[in-house]
Hints:
- The structure holds two protein chains of two kinds.
- Chain A is 65% helix and 5% strand.
- Chain A has a five-stranded antiparallel beta sheet with strand order 4-3-2-1-5, sandwiched between helices.
- In chain A, helix 7 (151-163) crosses helix 11 (215-229).
- Chain A is mainly alpha-helical.
- Chain A has helices spanning 36-43, 57-81, 87-100, 104-114, 125-134, 138-149, 151-163, 172-184, 187-193, 196-208, 215-229, 237-254, 272-280, 284-305, 314-338, 349-367, 372-385, 390-409, 414-424, 429-436, 440-454; strands at 2-6, 11-16, 19-23, 32-33, 49-53.
- In chain B, helix 12 (263-280) links the parallel strand 7 (251-256) and strand 8.
- The model of chain B has no long low-confidence stretch (mean pLDDT 89).
- At the A-B interface, helix 1, helix 2 and helix 3 of A face helix 12 of B.
Amino acid sequence: MDAFVSGRAGVAIIVDGDRLLSMNLEPHTPPIPCTFRDVRFLLGDARDLLLVEHETFDEIRADLAVARNQDDALQLALFTLDAELSDETREEAARALEELLASNMVLAFVEGVLLSHPAPKSADVIGAIRLADRAHAARAETFFGRVASLQPRVEEVWRAWEALPLSFFADEDERVRTRAGLVRAGVFRDFVNGDVDAIAAAARRVSSVGTVDNHGAILQALIRSLEDGSKRPERFLYGTQRVVASENLDHNRGLEARDEPSGDAQPSEWTPDLVSAALDREGPLQRKLALDVFKLLHRCAYRTLQSHRRRFDVASEAESMAQDLTLELFHRDGMILRGWQPTRGRTTLSSYLYFIGQRHFIHRLRRDQLKQSEVVAITENHAEIAVSDEAEEQVAAELRKDLALQAVRAQLDAGERELLELVLQGRSAKEGAAALGINSNSFRQRKAHLLRKLKVIPDQRDE
Amino acid sequence: MDRCEFTDCGHELPIRSDRCPHCGRPGLFPNVRVASQPTELVALDGRYQDTRRAIDARGCAGVADAFMEKVDASTAVITRPLGDVERLARNDHEVYSTYYKQIEAEIRLPDDSKWDPLRRIAEEALFPGYKENIRFAALTLEDRGLPSYGDCFFTLRSPMIAHRSSVFETNNVLFMKQRNLSLGEMADLPLGYRANWKDRAKLCIAKLGARLDQNMKDPDFSALLMCTGSSTNDDDFVEVHIFGPITIRSIRKIVLTKPDVGRVARAKRRAWGEKLLKRYGVVLEVT
């Protein structure tokens, strides 16, 4: 028997030879004969139809129950992400979601949908992680952690899909239908996970239900588009590039090679909300943010390079480094800038940027194969310079710790190094867990193990 | 016969039209115009005055005044299955359709019951040529509807419907059936059994005045205005006829009478209620 199953409507339409029957989720209720005209009435505006084939009504009802749970879980996940709702309501949604995510089929479905499109600005993923944690919903917390950490990749895959020419499809409607089929089959999730075998398997599934005719060509094109994607500039950056370029010109006009940048940026007035507002829309506020970020990083880079006057044209190199990092910070919808949380130890945007800037510039110098002794010199030099500034004190402390860890870092494997980076960035258990796609408890355990291995005192701010 | 209010036109406005057929300008809603005809007003007033005299003779004038005051603040409530209301609440593009429009759009089938032909005849008599535009509700004093029509009540915002609503003595099909009206009589319905929105208290006194007694208090008025029977045949209420569409923004409150079973259903309902309140100012109550 074939059956069309809709979790949203909670109804299965069964095609049994010449008969048409409808069945709901009520146990022990036999299917009821219906006509073709009834189908629209029974399904209403549900669009989540899934074609299944089974021998018995019980098997169809089991599929219907799974489809219902999948639809419920998706709705609950969206409620948990919805910043418009109160924390209490979102917490209750997370708690209910926890039950449903125990099923791998449900988890795969919700993941397939949420990883098929970048989270909209209205989606509060970090809040969802926090509330799932508060609700003791470990599965939900891990799930939202994965959604958060995979966003950059989700965006890449989404852009690759958007870049596919319409010629692959008969028309825009078919493009929409095809995408829906691929989402349902979990193809976008598999692309995000980079799981080639799973993509091939998903493609076969899509093909088997006849949703997509030329799935092979589409998937190949998607892969090619993903490969090309990294070479394309982001539209979002154009405005920032213009601002930074014009700022460079201004600086070059009046700046002598050995002059320190004025550092006249006053980013103390920036708050996370203001930063988000600036990133949300191109305009004067965004330009001011770009300028402030650039000026501060320029000053930071200049100081970092002071010990290398003989090696570099410091003014020019500092500008170049600051420009690169500024643009990087505005990448991916300004995700790194949006990640600033004053409650996490870096109370001002200035201290946050110094922290990022110092680490970035030093890594860059290392990458350029500077000698270790020179790095130490830079760091110590910086630690001396920065004593008057609370923000810079934090940076200096971080860097001292960084040096202490260098000797043992080489002994760590890739996973441990990734964990160490998160610990050094001052990430909380929740944030770190989200970045690694594990739950908070696992993160804490791994961190304790790592610190024991390193014999380093844990960073108290983290807890 | 009404005339078009536009001075350069001024031609007769057919009773079934909601706009002038000659110049296209909008007129009043036909159900409201019918209920506001001088003959209807006079007949209703006659019934009202007769009932008031009887009430005064029984010494129930104070109770009648209190009842009228309550009815003046009454609202219109519609009862539907939860699924219908969930669809309506999805966004403000969803429209609460009429029975006839649903059939026309092939999203539902006609009822296979003896009521279907009866309602078609009764409604054609009441709303000649425009029955497919009329939505039905009941007058209520406390946001409760008639359970025999579904498990979900939604109360409408009076300012959104007052100008396009009329009220009728009772369920219009039962009205015709109880009086054994012939087809000929249906074409010329008895007068004084319908009113425009602002005169609904008069109609209620005319209908229910004989049942008022001196011991009645405010809580008794609700059951008097809407009496729930064991089936739709036994329900007694004042029917509200609303011309034109209803969306979530026409709704003030939704009452669910079927409790949610399980954590998932409760969590979904809570989130749904909160969104309704924030987006549309609609209060959700689960009883």
